[in-house]
Design brief:
Layout (H helix, E strand, L loop, with lengths): L2 H4 L1 H14 L3 H7 L3 H4 L1 E4 L2 E4 L7 H13 L2 H9 L31 H20 L12 E5 L6 H9 L9 E5 L4 H8 L7 E6 L6 H15 L12 E5 L2 H6 L7 E3 L16 H7 L1 H20 L6 H15 L4 E7 L6 H13 L17 E3 L11 H6 L6 E6 L7 H19 L17 E6 L4 H21 L11 H16 L8 H12 L2
Parallel strand pairs: 3-4, 3-5, 5-6, 6-7, 8-9, 8-10, 10-11
Antiparallel strand pairs: 1-2, 2-11
Helix pairs in contact: 2-5, 5-14, 8-12, 12-13, 13-18, 14-18, 15-18
Bound molecules: 6-O-phosphono-beta-D-fructofuranose (F6P).
The site of 6-O-phosphono-beta-D-fructofuranose has 14 residues, from loops.
Length: 525
């Protein structure tokens, strides 16, 4: 039995869960007139209402006890202090430095000169692009930026460029290509002109097959348009910790922006991986994004555990995953501009905490990260909400609601009203005597995260909030949230399979299913 499941806090939570299961949310609200206020937290631009979660003061007290028992405050200090808490890779975890405003950070290992230097280089590049001084090989100003990357080198900037649609600067268009499926690049390049198109190849390792394949195809597209291959250097920048790899592709050294081993890919949007964002909205707005994240960092470091928004979100996740058996959580942003948020959170949460071995190498005896999924409301209501309301699974929901998105409009009000209606329907249900097929049982938990406006500061805080939530869960579950060894084996397998698919050869070592499929696929030509 692990220390966690053996702990008095864990056992007390299991007992308390039985007690609380008997109380409905309607009863909990009826019993406490101050419930809505008591179970909500403000942090800068964000407000979290978790009163529609199936908790009471005792549940929160016991859950907070789990965080204390795991020595969460000490771990927070270790992360911000630059300790190598990514133990399997012996690396520090310093994405918080990327949005730090400190002159020196962290103590004893100052990474700020590198961070500030990168921000300055980003600003110069963005200015160059916006002023029309960034020119292609034939002397025309660049009009289209194509970001080539995958996972952390794609999902963050892609999500933020869409989310900040209202802040976009006129002129430059930003596109994203991620899939090794050539259809992705083909679709992005349709209608673009080589002379006015610029590629950013973002890859921390610069060894990722999808990204290298797309970069090679982009190169071939340019080569077909220009006579001299020297022309290509006018059309490429790279963001990587592997400068040699980027230069081998022909990216001039002055166009290679750094990444560092102390930043995980899925935590990297705050520096040069965010270049497409800065190009879309300008460097000032990008810096506001950093300020929002910085404010959340300060909240996370300074607020007591019970008033600490990332901590509370993490504790609620643990409550449902470990004590109610929830296998998934839905994230439903009531904002079309935030529609890529669920995909972004899938990598952040599932790649970080989708693990079954703890920090000491022991198999865990408790569930870890749930499946994170979702889509934007209101279309989601006409797709999967049926299951949320009347299905057999308990699926906690994060509703992300934007208060006043700029001007007040009938459309925006309808959007917000729908979000509130959904969370109320989940919580309080709708008894319909004599018509069980129509009845909504209610008592289905959700949080509502309110952003006053979909603006850079609020977005920065929102993303940092989820990053820290993931960190807290990792500490309580005793996981290393900063490695991702589970994805390596598939990469190795494909290296063996691909030549067999293209050239044939010995398939004797493969399993019968793969062998059969390969044989059938090879016959197709
Ligand atoms: O394979 C998983 C992964 O390593 C992610 O963690 C990462 O974000 C993605 O691949 C892309 O990696 P890179 O930035 O090195 O190309």
């Amino acid at each position: 039995m692990s220390k966690l499941t053996h702990s008095p806090e864990w056992k007390a939570l299991a007992a308390h869960r039985k007690k609380i299961a008997a109380a409905s949310l309607a009863e909990l609200f009826a019993a406490d007139a101050s419930r809505a206020g008591r179970f909500s937290i403000e942090a800068g631009e964000l407000m979290l209402d978790y009163s529609k979660q199936r908790v009471d003061a005792e549940a929160m007290r016991l859950l907070t006890g789990l965080a204390s028992q795991a020595q969460l405050p000490g771990w927070i200090a270790r992360m911000f202090g630059g300790d190598p808490i990514n133990s399997t890779e012996a690396r520090a975890v310093l994405h918080v430095a990327l949005r730090s405003g400190d002159t020196t950070f962290p103590e004893g290992r100052d990474v700020m000169p590198a961070v500030r230097g990168t921000r300055e280089r980003m600003r110069r590049f963005v200015d160059e692009a916006h002023s029309g001084a960034l020119k292609g090989a034939d002397g025309r100003a660049i009009t289209d930026i194509v970001n080539i990357g995958i996972g952390g080198s794609d999902l963050g900037p892609r999500m933020l460029v869409r989310a900040m649609r209202k802040f976009r600067k006129p002129g430059l268009k930003v596109h994203f290509v991620t899939n090794i499926d050539p259809a992705d690049l083909d679709a992005a390049l349709a209608g673009l002109t080589p002379g006015t198109t610029f590629f950013i190849v973002a890859s921390k390792t610069f060894t990722t097959a999808e990204t290298l394949a797309n970069a090679a195809r982009a190169r071939a597209w340019l080569e077909a348009a220009f006579e001299k291959s020297t022309a290509l250097s006018h059309h490429f920048a790279a963001v990587t910790a592997n400068a040699a790899g980027a230069e081998a592709l022909g990216v001039p050294p002055e166009r290679v922006l750094p990444m560092w081993d102390w930043v995980g890919g899925r935590y990297s949007v705050w520096a040069a991986v965010g270049l497409p964002v800065a190009l879309a909205v300008g460097m000032d707005a990008f810096e506001e994004l950093l300020e929002g994240a910085r404010a959340m960092d300060a909240h996370f470091r300074n607020e007591p555990l019970e008033r600490n928004m990332p901590v509370v979100l993490a504790l609620l996740e643990i409550w449902y995953v470990n004590f109610f058996g929830a296998g998934s959580r839905a994230v439903i942003p009531y904002s079309e501009d935030l529609r890529d948020l669920p995909a972004y959170l899938q990598q952040l949460e599932m790649e970080s905490n989708g693990k079954r071995v703890d920090r000491d190498g022991n198999e865990v005896d408790y569930a870890t990260a749930p499946v994170v999924w979702g889509a934007s409301g209101t279309p989601s209501q006409h797709s999967f909400h049926q299951l949320l309301h009347q299905g057999t699974h308990l699926i906690p929901v994060d509703f992300i609601v934007v208060g006043r998105n700029g001007e007040q409009s009938a459309g925006q009000s309808a959007l917000v009203a729908n979000a509130l209606a959904q969370s109320a329907a989940l919580a309080f249900g709708n008894p319909t005597p004599g018509a069980p097929h129509k009845a909504l049982p209610g008592n289905r938990p959700s949080s509502t995260l309110l952003l006053e406006r979909l603006a850079p500061r609020a977005l920065g805080a929102l993303i940092a909030l989820y990053e820290h939530k993931v960190f807290v869960e990792g500490i309580i579950w005793n996981l290393n949230s900063f490695d991702q060894w589970g994805v390596e084996h598939g990469k190795n397998l494909v290296r063996t399979l691909l030549p067999k698919l293209i050239e044939g050869g010995d398939t004797a070592g493969l399993d019968a299913s793969t062998r059969g499929l390969l044989a059938r696929l090879r016959k197709r030509d």
